[in-house]
Design a protein that fits this description.
Elements: H1 5-13, E1 16-20, H2 24-36, E2 40-45, H3 62-66, H4 71-82, E3 87-92, H5 100-104, E4 109-112, H6 117-130, E5 134-140, E6 143-149, H7 157-160, H8 173-176, H9 180-198, E7 208-213, E8 218-223, E9 248-253, E10 258-263, H10 271-278, E11 283-286, E12 291-295, E13 298-302, E14 308-311, H11 316-326
Parallel strand pairs: 1-2, 1-4, 2-3, 4-5
Antiparallel strand pairs: 5-6, 6-7, 7-8, 9-10, 10-14, 11-12, 12-13, 13-14
Helix pairs in contact: 2-9
């Protein structure tokens, strides 16, 4: 391709990219990067494969489920068979303020395959701090969106989303579903922007938010411009998620087979709104003080300030996955 050429291909081979999340977006992104010849690809994910993942997570099959493999490990095994010249590094961990700089601080590019806003804002903090380009992507139902972020050149993700949405206010894939082809389209857009960045073609970048609905066959371009309000991250250098002054943390409750998810600042939860979304996937009941949601073998007890106790689970990483899946943040 004239757009890449021999010199561009060599730049790709000399590059390192991190994919955070190996779900619907992440597996498609990693597949595209490895086939394009990006020399080193780091896959970061805390989760294991489930049967319902196979509808949209293209690097997995039923054998991976039978073997009980983590997503990052199973994805890496498949990708090594596709391109043996690429170094694929699986990392099975929960991305958090304590480890995120170590995980992505040495890469040339970060691509978003996550499923929650908290992790994206954390990625934004570390990338802005270290001047690492990253590409946001999100998919829900038949829709998706993506934007390319070059720190101190384009608006950052914190410019776009100044604060976390309240718990339960945003739909999740487990509540409304996700069409596999929507993830493929958004992942393809992310990888294409990544190739531009890694080959140094800054003038070719999309400097807007691109929104698509693959069911309707529609695409919208939304211009991004900074206003007069200083951004905490890219203008003021205040990295509140990286410094653990925003977001959440998980604590295993001794002897209770439960994990408590705590928010670092109080957020009001709308129980009627959250209950309406959860009824399609499990048993839910609530009063003024507590919302209780059961989906076997787990039970989530959500308090008005967003604090949540996940029962039937002693692993904080799994509890955070369940919280993101059903409560959302």
């Amino acid at each position: 391709m004239a757009e890449i050429g021999d010199a561009g291909q060599r730049r790709l081979l000399a590059s390192t990219a991190a994919v955070v999340g190996c779900g619907a977006l992440g597996t498609n992104i990693a597949n595209g990067l490895v086939r394009a010849g990006v020399g080193r690809v780091r896959l970061i994910d805390r989760d294991f494969i489930e049967l319902n993942n196979l509808q949209r997570q293209v690097l997995f099959d039923e054998t991976d489920i039978a073997q009980g493999l983590p997503k990052a490990v199973a994805a890496a095994a498949k990708l090594r068979k596709i391109n043996s010249q690429v170094e694929v590094e699986p990392v099975v961990t929960d991305v958090n303020p304590d480890n995120v700089e170590q995980l992505v601080g040495d890469v040339d590019l970060v691509l978003d395959g996550t499923d929650n806003f908290e992790t994206r804002l954390l990625i934004n903090d570390v990338c802005v701090k270290r001047d690492i380009p990253w590409i946001y992507g999100g998919v829900i139902s038949t829709c998706g969106m993506t934007m390319t972020i070059v720190p101190h050149d384009t608006p950052c993700f914190r410019c776009f989303l100044n604060e976390l949405p309240a718990p339960g206010s945003s739909p999740t894939c487990d509540m409304v579903g996700v069409l596999g082809t929507a993830a493929m389209v958004v992942a393809a857009l992310e990888v294409t922007e990544g190739i531009k960045l890694l080959t140094g073609q800054m003038d070719a970048l999309r400097r807007e938010l691109l929104y698509c609905d693959v069911w309707a066959g529609s695409f919208e371009r939304l211009g991004l411009a900074k206003d007069d309000t200083p951004c905490p991250a890219c203008d003021l250098g205040q990295y509140e998620f990286l410094e653990a002054r925003q977001g959440s943390w998980a604590t295993a409750l001794c002897g209770r087979d439960a994990v408590q998810i705590n928010l670092r600042h109080e957020m009001q939860t709308s129980f009627p709104q959250l209950a309406e979304r959860l009824r399609s996937v499990g048993e839910v009941a609530y009063n003024d003080y507590l919302l209780r949601f059961r989906v076997e073998p787990y039970e989530l007890n959500v308090f008005p300030d967003g604090r949540t106790i996940v029962k039937g689970c002693s692993d904080p990483a799994l509890a955070r996955t369940l919280y993101a899946r059903y409560v959302g943040l």
